[in-house]
């Protein structure tokens, strides 16, 4: 299969080409349908070019096969090239110096070629091709004249300048031995996605100089497939990026985006291709490929090293640019790089121990800080496991869309406005009341409360629910001060955000839910599991079904105490930038 692919691309030409440099006759064979662009397609193209001004702008690829000197079979790109011809024809009516350097001819629709010359309105209804061509030309004319106070001449001058200096197509001239009909079919059913990655690949496999011979092409193609397959490892992908894999049909394109330092707000859809096209021109293609391999092997090493995996993965997960991390690592020794990761985490958190204690769920501005703290607590807990091969699963963490900052033990009935939610909450807490072992005196209170729940259940109203809610919480909570409720000592990462009844549940109800999730093999972050198994609490202080003061002290101490898991990533008190 690789042999066949290399035969197709070995003598191909792939390069960015200014629209003004497109020259010759383009033959449209019988296997292609006629022109079908609608008004909105034409306007979108014109608006994009005009709004982009003197910045680089690239149209989709034009795929051709050379038939003769200055004559090409147009395999893919008929719609774009026809529209460009119509735009130039209109501009020529405004500014005579506008040059049209190419023409279209047809294997079976010869009258279309004549119609393109005349654009006779009286013939526009004669067949479907004429109809679409004329409507597109009318849309162009309307676009140039849409602004009543606009200067059509100036608009034309500017647009013509952009086409000559900034607007490009990706010119893909395939091997003359290529079966054009077969290639057209594959292109149009998505078998050859002309993404940035595919275009970069074609550049490497189309080079016959720069030290890339047939054997080297085979080596590149094999290495390419290996990298592509390894990037399909879900854990590797989640380590590298927060983006969905669905955004990258060709996974290696992520690697190219990183190398080209493409920014999230980049409008040029072929930015990455342009970057590598220029790199190949300035440096030998073989040297560029070696740099790609070197770059990839660095990322793979980070993924395979336990400490680097967890620290780099955490920074990426909280939004730090992997491009920045890579750039900052280049001049550092391995020891210095590890130290720099600690510093980067500390800078990203930008919190002291005192500041962590002051974080509150009541303050929405603290949400992201609480989330970063809890995620780091979980990541570092896994990293520090002794004699374990377990790794924190960024893949599981990122694929769950409804993570939330949850109260380990809730106190308010926020969101419990619907009758079905109130009934679910009562059902969950009735089970706890029935299953807990209370003292004889408290047991009587619990039994009376169960009877009240049964009595009010079917016709529960808001007032009745509020009374039952308060009584249940009084019974299933410890008797200490409840000012802790919105503090870090009562927060954990849970994936029950869309369930109002569970969100507002007591510790025992949430504990039962966590145990059920664990039995079902659902993903639970390690620290969340430990909280509900009372891992942090000294056995002498255990109250298995309550989240008490000793539990909270032990939990927060494990997080940010003198020997806390994440204490070293916090800044000294009174030093926050």
The helix content is 40-55%
> N- to C-terminal separation?
57 Å
The biggest beta sheet, please? 7 strands, mixed
> Can you count the beta strands?
9
Strand proportion:
5-15%
Give the low-pLDDT segments: 1-10
- Radius of gyration, rounded? 33 Å
Please state the overall shape, judged from the principal axes of the Cα atoms.
elongated
Structural class: alpha/beta
Put simply, the count of helices is: 26
Task: Give the rounded overall mean pLDDT.
Answer: 86
Question: How does this structure look, described?
Answer:
- With 577 residues, the chain is α/β, with parallel strands linked by helices.
- It is 54% helix and 8% strand.
- The strands form two sheets. Strands 1, 2, 3, 4, 5, 6 and 7 form a seven-stranded mixed beta sheet that branches. It has a two-stranded antiparallel sheet with strand order 8-9.
- Helix 12 (271-282) crosses helix 13 (285-304) and helix 14 packs parallel to helix 16.
- The longest helix is centred in the middle third of the chain and has 20 residues, at 285-304.
Short précis:
By secondary structure, the chain is of the alpha/beta class.
Keywords:
577 residues, alpha/beta, seven-stranded mixed β-sheet
Topology:
Elements: H1 2-9, E1 13-18, E2 24-28, H2 39-52, E3 57-58, E4 62-68, E5 71-76, H3 78-94, E6 102-106, H4 110-118, H5 128-144, H6 152-165, E7 167-173, H7 180-188, H8 196-205, H9 214-230, H10 234-240, H11 252-260, H12 271-282, H13 285-304, H14 306-317, H15 322-329, H16 334-349, H17 353-358, H18 367-383, H19 394-399, E8 404-407, H20 419-435, H21 440-456, H22 462-475, E9 491-494, H23 500-503, H24 507-519, H25 526-532, H26 549-560
Parallel strand pairs: 2-5, 2-6, 3-7, 4-7
Antiparallel strand pairs: 1-7, 4-5, 8-9
Helix pairs in contact: 2-5, 3-5, 8-12, 11-12, 12-13, 14-16, 14-18, 20-21, 20-22, 21-22
